[in-house]
Amino acid sequence: MKKLISKTFILLVIITLTLTMFSACGNSIGKETPVKDSADNQTEKNDYTKESSELDEKNEVADLVLWTYPFFIPEGKKHGDFEKEIIKEFQKDYPNVKVNIETIAWDGGPEKVNVAIATKSAPDILIDAYMRIMEYGMKGHLVSFNDVMTEEDKNDIYPKVLEQCTFDGKIYQYPWTSAAVVMAVNKELFKKADAEDLLPLDRPNREWTIEEFEKALDAVSKLDGVYGLTCYAGNEMGDASIRMFIQNFGADVVNSDYTKVLINDDSGYKGMEWLVNAYKKGWIIKGAESLTSSDIFDIWFQGKAAITFLGSSWMPDRIESMKKEGTVSKDFEVVFVNMPHAEGVSTKVEGQTSGVCVFDNDDNQKALISKKLSIFMAKNYHDEGNLLLGRAPVRKSSAVKYENAELRWLSGTIQNLADTGALAPGYSEIRKKWFPEFQAALTGFKTPKEALDSFAKEAQKVLDEHNNK
Amino acid sequence: MEVKYLKKFRQIVEKMKKGKEGYLFIAPSFIIFMIFTLFPIVKSLIISLFEYDLSSYKWIGINNYLVLIEDKVFLKALINSFLFALFNVPLTIILSLFISITIHPKKEASKSFYRAAFYLPVVSSIVTITLIWKWIYHPIFGILNFIIENIGFNRINWLGDYDFAFPALVIVLLTISIGQPILLYVASLGSIPKTYYEVGRIEGVNRLQEYRYITWPLLKPTTLYILVMTTIASFQTFAIVQLMTGGGPFYTTSTIVYQLYTTAFDFVKLGLASAMGIILTLIIVLISVFQFKFLSTDIEY
To answer: Residue B228, Cβ neighbours under 10 Å: how many?
Structure first.
């Protein structure tokens, strides 16, 4: 009996193995399946026939799936309600187009999209931030908007924004909102330290040098229980801001054609050394090596640090609500400033656009309707979306004007975006290499130079691997 | 030759027909095992021989395994996984045995209370538990730092310090691990016939000798089960690493499963991640076989 069972088991294993080989790899075993050449395929894929583009809108039939992160949450409503309202309007012209909306969580959402792509169950439309969207585009999973965007439409979008949406001449993201990420200052603490005049608030661009920044940190750190600056190395979230701080010493993360990592030059070393020294001096909050970008907001809100990275447009509203709840000081006042820059270096601003992309699910007709819906959402509801998020408009024609002076200033900075390297092939892997090295530098396990060199080496390896594919 | 195989096949079918009730009974769990365990393992084994991302397959033989052997981060994660098992398994067994022996003689009501209290982390969401621990360990607001500062010590960055991050995670893992063993040990202690102890007392054995010669040997089957299951769970440590340290500081707390997750779902290198999975499977199988072979010889009483 034992023999019989073991034989049956072996037989079943062989059958499973055989079936698996067929199902796992199909006819591609033993030979490389070429990666979709985005440029070549797009021309063919987007060559929509006249017949299809001239179809009567009323007769267009499609079942679309739209995934969105919880970007837009109108007051008193749920995630996805804003998108649903837009789709209702779209369906007035396209009554036979059904759209199934699913909100995916920030945490685990990118993994969910990756799994969906791998299992050929990607949504038709996705609302997301540009670095992820562009990575999908570079890997050939998206259709471009080139065929449906007019010159007039392109000219209406700020050039720096359009740059973030374009790879190899293909526009993979139809932009909707953008957000500059600067430094946020708790002005109340500077008032208490009698150091308000050390902030660059009277300058139109709110730029300041490293020396001026140091003076401000030194003054405010003298307050009891207050650190000058927050910082974080707990995970990869918000990593671009720390690197942007180093970029403001004159370094670039990668070269313009994304083939060489450049951050470990003399100016890069200076930037990294500055951060480590500031940590040793006590200007930067203790425990930064294990804090994450979300931890630092609590620290900043509670007045334990005067300046924080990741200053963004959602802060003024949040602080007002927190004042009403009594969870922050009633005198808490947020002001935004640019990151400090080294002598002779012009201020660089980190920012990211978010928008809509359409997956290439081998159905031209569906892709076309998806693109129409994407444009309908991001163009017709451009201002509503931005006002809802307090973000900066991506269109020159926008009528968005913020009453809040800070938001007004912040939305103006979007025209000075610097390259964070987010469009480099393998960027999601590169950024994972950052925080262990930054941790090593902050804890003294490595010197700033060693840590930056090590990051550059690992990042270059990833870059080479992806560029050679 | 063909006739010989046909004959054998017929014999197998005949034998299966005779035991069809038995096969029918095991069929549901066997089918589930095939689909959700064996099939993924076999598929992982195949994928591990390919360079496989979202858009292409490329046969590369054992190259993924060669890459892993040279990958310092993976080797560090491998060592950390062993260390997690090395600390967590004995501590889990010692602590849960001690707690079980302590609560076993108590009245039924208090016994139930303790069992429920220690089992609570097992049925609670791991996310909730880790978030609470994260707050306890928080370098600025954490209650642990608040306490040690008030008794005159310096604050410690529990999750950011090379010396403390790993032990801090072992403690969290321990709180999650001991619930199930306590329940099992208390049940096993209850099933030991009282007559054994009575005979022991007549023979003049003291309390320590009772544990040494009666309780411990009779708990061996339970201990073996706990040993195997806790070892497997320790090697699969993931959620607390993902949620508390992200593998840091500088890979000090990274584990194989955490590396596997990031490789598969962040870097989309499914071939490499599958190779990690296969290595982990082999390690767990080898250790389990070793544990069964060397620890299950004298469990029959």
So the answer is: 18
